[in-house]
Automatic annotation (TrEMBL):
Protein purpose: One of the primary rRNA binding proteins, this protein initially binds near the 5'-end of the 23S rRNA. It is important during the early stages of 50S assembly. It makes multiple contacts with different domains of the 23S rRNA in the assembled 50S subunit and ribosome. Forms part of the polypeptide exit tunnel.
NCBIfam families per the UniProt record, alphabetical: rplD_bact
Cited Gene3D superfamilies: 3.40.1370.10
Family annotation (SUPFAM superfamilies): Ribosomal protein L4
Protein name: Large ribosomal subunit protein uL4
GO cellular component: ribosome
Oligomer status and interactors: Part of the 50S ribosomal subunit.
Length: 206
């Protein structure tokens, strides 16, 4: 099992913690990690883009001029794609971009992402993270003590003060253990977990 240091909010090491290899020490599957990221980005798409084809735009029912003898190219409708106000060729229509992954694949992708943070020394475990009031300055002080900037802070239980204190800090976001995902874990340089969050993740995914 991997041993990681546990820090307090002042940035001082207060102990060590063993991480469960079933969650934080698996063999990294790059393919599933990639697939999980693609899936999440695809599922975020609304798929509501729409443009009208020549059969859907209004007008154009009458032939604009006779077939021959005008000197113009022959035209059948003023709503053909080459006309201003005409329809769009191969116009986009609403569609579902969602991609499916099996539950076991999703779990392994998440474990792979967590393992990569451990192997790259980009995971920090906090003994506890509590703030008496919602103050951005207080949260920024904690981050400065830990010497991190772009980070994902994962909490085990609702902590309104921490969430509100983090909201105005660029490149730092909070999440709960039941909302973490592969994309966010990989997007931020550092993954910050509280001890209770680590226990909760291991309980669910081990």
């Amino acid at each position: 099992m991997a041993n990681v240091s546990v820090y307090n909010m002042e940035g001082k090491e207060v102990g060590t913690m063993e991480l469960n290899d079933a969650v934080f020490g698996v063999e990294i599957n790059d393919h599933l990690v990639h697939l999980a990221v693609v899936r999440q980005l695809a599922n975020n798409r609304q798929g509501t883009q729409k443009a009208k084809t020549r059969s859907e735009v209004s007008g154009g029912g009458r032939k604009p001029w006779r077939q021959k003898g005008t000197g113009h190219a022959r035209q059948g409708s003023t709503r053909s794609p080459q006309w201003t106000g005409g329809g769009v060729v191969f116009a986009p229509v609403p569609r579902d971009y969602s991609i499916k992954m099996n539950k076991k694949e999703r779990r392994l992708a998440l474990k792979s992402a967590l393992t990569s943070r451990v192997q790259e020394n980009k995971l920090i475990v906090l003994e506890d993270l509590t703030l008496d009031e919602a103050k951005t300055k207080a949260m920024q002080t904690v981050l400065n003590n830990l010497n991190v900037s772009k980070a994902l802070v994962v909490l085990n239980e609702e902590n309104k003060n921490v969430v509100l204190s983090t909201r105005n800090i660029p490149d730092v976001v909070t999440a709960y253990t039941n909302t973490i995902n592969v994309f966010d874990i990989l997007k931020y340089n550092t993954l910050i977990l509280t001890k209770s969050a680590v226990a909760s993740i291991e309980e669910v995914y081990a």
